[in-house]
Amino acid sequence: MVNRLAQSQSLYLQKHAENPIDWWPWCDEALETARSENKPIFLSIGYSSCHWCTVMEGEAF
Question: Is the pTM higher than 0.70?
Answer without folding.
Answer: no
